[in-house]
Every structure is written in structure tokens, then in C-alpha cells.
């Protein structure tokens, strides 16, 4: 699941937002890792991991 932080309710292309992501299963990841969010075969977001919460 993803949660927009900072009071944002939605974002549009070009916006910079902070999100909290809860993964369905564990994967190897560390601070500074880059990631992409894909939906229906298209990239709908990308970013950099800034903090790991266990």
C-alpha cells in the first residue's frame, strides 16, 4: 500500500511528493535505493528510498 504524506490527497504528473510504502512481501532494499511504481505495464512513479522502517 502507498500513503501520501504531508496532507496531500492526490498527485499529478510532475509533482514531487513523499509517500510511505508498505510492501506485501519482504525484498532487499536500503537507503538510497531507486525504485519505480508500475501499474498496468506503465511506470506511474519513481523515487529514492530515504528511510527503512522495520
Summarize, please.
With about 55 residues, the chain is mainly β. The chain contains no helices and four strands.
Structural summary, described in words:
The structure is a single chain. With 54 residues, the chain is mainly β. The two termini are 15 Å apart. It is 0% helix and 35% strand. The mean pLDDT is 92. It has one domain: Translation factors (Elongation Factor Tu (Ef-tu), domain 3, Beta Barrel).
List keywords for this structure.
mainly beta; two-stranded antiparallel sheet; 0% helix; 4 strands; two-stranded antiparallel ribbon; Elongation Factor Tu (Ef-tu), domain 3; 54 residues; single chain
What's the end-to-end separation, in Å?
Answer: 15 Å
Low-confidence stretches: none
Average pLDDT score: 92
Radius of gyration, CA atoms, in whole angstroms = 12 Å
User: Helical stretch count?
Assistant: 0
Helix share bin: under 10%
SSE topology sketch:
Blueprint: E1 2-4, E2 19-21, E3 34-39, E4 42-48
